[in-house]
Write a structure and sequence with these properties.
mainly alpha; 4 helices
Length: 98
């Protein structure tokens, strides 16, 4: 493998992990739909909100540090200029989720 191929694989791995953060949107949208729908039980709404809270914590609060760890572990496969750029993007993404 060439250095460019290893860099591409490392960045793709981090990107796939970062996209997992979107999983919590399923429960966010479902919560909004149920809130607007007449006749939704309080129990259903509460269960959806709990699922939203758990998925948000797992997919965004835990996922970004994990993606950063994977990125930093693979930094030896990346060009020097890429590391600070992607690192700052990851830090910004994490801060947006706090």
């Amino acid at each position: 493998k060439t250095g460019a191929t290893e860099q591409t694989l490392a960045l793709r791995s981090v990107l796939c992990i970062a996209y997992f953060a979107e999983f919590s949107n399923i429960f966010l949208r479902l919560s909004n739909i149920l809130r607007r729908r007449a006749g939704t039980s309080a129990r259903t709404q509460k269960a959806t909100n709990i699922a939203l809270l758990v998925s948000f914590a797992a997919c965004r609060m835990v996922n970004f540090p994990w993606a950063t760890w994977v990125f930093l572990s693979a930094r030896r496969h990346m060009q020097r200029g890429v590391v600070p750029l992607i690192g700052s993007i990851q830090a910004s993404g994490y801060l947006l989720n706090l």
